Amino acid sequence: MAKFVLAGRADCPYYAKAELLADYLQKNLPDFRIHKITQHPDIWEEWLKDLCKKNRWSHNKSPIIWRELLDRGGKGLLLGGYNEFLEHAQLYYGVTSSMTTELMKRVAQENLGTHIEKELEKESLKGLVNPLQVWITSASSLACYHLIPILTSGEVFGPQMEISINLFDNKHTEEKLISHKQEAEDLASPCLQSVSICTQAEEAFHGAHVIIILDDHVDKEINSLEDCIRSRAPLCQLYGSLIEKNAHNFAKIIVGGKTFVNLKTALLMKYAPTFAHNIIAVALGVEGQAKAALARKLKITPSCIKDVIIWGNISGNNYVDLRKAKVYRYESAIWGPPHYSRPVLSLLFDREWVNREFVVSLKTLTATGRQFGGMLAAHSIATTLKYWCHGSPPGEIVSLGVLSEETDLNQEDVKTTLPTKNDHQERRKVSDDYKDLFTHLMPDDEKDLILSDGESVE
Known about the structure:
The chain is α/β, with parallel strands linked by helices. The chain has helices at 13-28, 41-55, 82-93, 101-128, 142-151, 174-186, 225-246, 261-271, 284-298, 344-347, 351-368, 374-390, 406-409, 438-452, and strands at residues 2-9, 32-39, 64-68, 76-80, 132-137, 163-168, 192-198, 210-213, 252-255, 279-282, 305-306, 309-312, 318-321, 326-328, 341-343, 398-403, 415-423, 426-429.
């Protein structure tokens, strides 16, 4: 099987003559196949330069013809231009072309017109599709690198939902953004319509349906914790104003990461009040760390543990509640069907470990951010977003940072982590019988908010 690729400038007369000869050979020879590529004259030279650089060829004219040794997309063997192809056809197949110069020019103009029509048709078809606009801040981070493949897999928004990813970061990270963009395009996901880069703040969040706020870059000149907290306010104020100005009316804003998560969520709610009830903080990372610690102790996998609840500040003063936690598929003398579960606390006979070592290890992880890498952050954000869009597993409780109401905590406008159940984009809080916990947990968030406003805390 002889497979050739014929590529050329759309208005090239020699491409038109080579195309006619190739069509004749394909029609009359059973094992001859031709694949044709036309490029607009304005982009032909750049396209040819990139092609030759990729395949280590030397060619600078239209058309260019190569033979594929495997299937299309495999390593090719350069044949040359029009003259080499004509010579090849005459020597191997005894066929030549007698097309006149006048006819070559006329066909070349028809080819250009046809090429332009096809490109316009493609653009019009793209205009009919309204993809989900997903914006990611601090997109040069490792968390974004791991998050993009999950978003484009179809698991989060659904296999039929097309998305357009917009990578937003400062100008100094443009090289990394370009790298992320190229790798995202290399995924060739059917759900991904486009990937774009934004380094201009005034253009951020334009038409955004989903906004993912990742950890921003830490200024190395900031030494104290108080200064670090205060430094978050201007950026959140900028994000809030841009969200109010540019985002879609029903945009979902999700705040993830490992530093000042509750604080950033509270500031965004303050500076983007229109979207306050559509801003949430991701707590599944801390919840996952707690499940992993329990799983190591019980010698099971973390997926077998459900309903571990995180209260309070996600990246600060929090409380891991195991009173409703359950274990499924636990190997012991008691076995049951897949839906059978047992309370975690009934299986943890070492209460000293629960009250001391377990608590200390989780507080250390929260305080230092150790082991909270890009992969954990990405999966936590993607899972939370999936639950928000499609609902959490039936009957399962997940932790989520949301805007509390007066009925929750006897205190309005507190941003804290609460146990919730996501039911088709509606969150139902299940915080009854827990209000006594918050007298201990709230001062942490309040202190951060006071500092972010530039005031001092006695």
